[in-house]
Design goal:
281 residues, 10 strands, elongated, mainly beta, 3 helices, two-stranded antiparallel ribbon, 27% strand
Length: 281
């Protein structure tokens, strides 16, 4: 790690030994005393930067920075924002090869159990599906049922059943969120394609089934606030509201889509396919 400093003090002084542990401690001290003469990082190519006898300049480097594969909700966008804010010169991306290759990642869920469904070979360990609810829930229920189940599923005898009623005209949410050992579903969203088999029971017109995909943290941009963003796909019954009008949620969203799936008058299993592609905004 190289750091900018003024001659005669700080990390460039004679006898000033900097280990990784000491450097991290120094960062904390610098945060508490930001006016130290060597604490401020100078912009790239600043004439105030020290220059060696051969004309070479010091550079600040972050040499072990993970992408969103291993930083849970951290994003490369947020890492770069922080690097720019702190006048970092060079940032080296590093990543675990098993995450880049989706090693032991889950590929299929049959919903035969909320806690003990054995995944396929090479897909890790069972997921734990945890019940979640928010909003004015008057009643909510769900769980695993043996029937009905999708005729498209090669493993028969399992489906996730959900029902919720709101106390008012405001949205009430009830569902399940996956908790996975080793987070073996965290990968790059770009290029991912998901298929979900859905049976929308007839007799209701308000509400929707939502497939919500949590993504990563991003700073404020394009009129959107900073926060953890989510991608939302909504399936509605025949005659239900479609379109792409966003609604307020507990977290700001980077991309939000609503996809209307026209269910026929009779109950029928539908296979919905969603995909994610990268784009610049």
């Amino acid at each position: 790690m190289c750091d900018d400093h003024l001659p005669g003090g700080g990390p460039g002084s004679a006898g000033f030994g900097v280990s990784r542990r000491n450097f991290l401690g120094g960062v904390a001290a610098a945060a508490l005393v930001p006016r130290l003469p060597w604490a401020a990082r100078l912009p790239l190519r600043s004439p105030a930067r020290p220059v060696a006898a051969d004309g070479a300049s010091a550079y600040s480097l972050a040499m072990h920075v993970h992408s969103s594969f291993s930083e849970y909700d951290g994003s490369m966008d947020a890492q770069l924002w922080q690097a720019t804010r702190n006048a970092l010169d060079v940032l080296w991306w590093t990543e675990h090869d098993q995450r880049l290759n989706d090693l032991d990642y889950r590929a299929t869920v049959h919903f035969t159990s909320l806690t003990a469904e054995q995944p396929g070979p090479g897909e890790g360990y069972p997921w734990q599906w945890k019940q979640q609810e928010s909003g004015p829930v008057a009643s909510g229920s769900g769980g695993i049922v043996a029937t009905p189940c999708s005729p498209y599923d090669p493993v028969a005898g399992g489906a996730l059943w959900l029902a919720v009623t709101s106390q008012s005209t405001s949205a009430a949410l009830y569902g399940y969120q996956a908790s996975a050992p080793g987070f073996n579903y965290r990968a790059n969203l770009t290029g991912q394609r998901l298929s979900i088999d859905v049976l929308l029971n007839p007799g209701w017109s308000r509400g929707y089934l939502e497939l919500a995909i949590g993504t990563s943290y991003h700073e404020a941009a394009g009129g959107r606030p900073a926060g953890d963003y989510a991608l939302s796909y909504r399936l509605v019954p025949a005659g239900g509201p479609g379109g792409s009008t966003p609604e307020a949620r507990r977290e700001p969203e980077w991309v939000r889509q609503q996809r209307a799936a026209e269910a026929r008058a009779r109950a029928e299993w539908l296979r919905q396919r969603v995909s994610a592609e990268a784009f610049d905004d």
